[in-house]
Amino acid sequence: MNGVPFPVGPCVLALVVIAVIYDLHARRIPNWLVVIGLGAGLVVQCALHGAIDGMLLWAGGTLTGGAVLLPGYLLRMMGAGDVKLMASVGCFCGASGAFEAALMVCMVGGVWALAEMLRHRQMRAGLHNMAAVLIDVSMPADGAPRGDNGQGTGNTGNTRTRRPTTGTLPYGVAIAIGTMLSLFMNV
Cα 91 to the chain's mean position, in Å? Predict the structure, then answer.
């Protein structure tokens, strides 16, 4: 994205500010907000780029924004609302802008999580949890190495024990900060 066209910045700002308020208060991002964001994003993209190009930019940004955070949801490191919010933000930015914003969001979220672990003196538990996540991804739940072309033979529903750390972060805040940093860096 070379520069941010006029309605994109204020729309994204309004979307993420409302999301932050809900995430801090209720620790969730409401679906109605995501749906409104997706609808407004489609209207903005079509108004700026025409119907066909606007729909393509909208779809590319939505898929890219959601896809970058989807592994975090699948690994139970964030909620589905966070992924949907990033998809909704992405629909305003197009695929490349959504990718840049999502990378900035991941950096902000990672630094914030690290700072929280240090602040609460939970670095060991946090590293243990990260190792547990990596082991869960690489091995089936029965602990046997994957020697059968990557298909485990045990219970795949179980996960390794994770230690309690500082709790969860309202990741909507990281999405808001990372997205706005990304947009302002492109102005």
Answer: 13
Alpha-carbon 140 to chain mean position: 26
* pLDDT at residue 168 in the model: 81
- At 152 the pLDDT is 46
Extents of the domains making up the chain: 8-120+170-185, 121-165
What's residue 84's pLDDT? Answer: 98
Mean pLDDT of the chain: 85
CA 51/CA 164 separation, integer angstroms: 49
3-state secondary structure of 93: helix
Please state the separation of Cα 66 from the chain's center in Å: 7
* Residue 30 DSSP one-character state: -
Asked if 64 contacts 102 with a C-beta cutoff of 8 angstroms, the reply is yes
Give me the phi and psi of 18, to 5 degrees please.
-65, -40
| Dist CA 152 CA 62 (whole Å) | 33
Residue range 82-96: average pLDDT? 97
CA distances from residue 2 to 5, 29, 96, 133 in whole angstroms, order as listed: 9, 29, 10, 37
CB 160 within 8 A of CB 132: yes
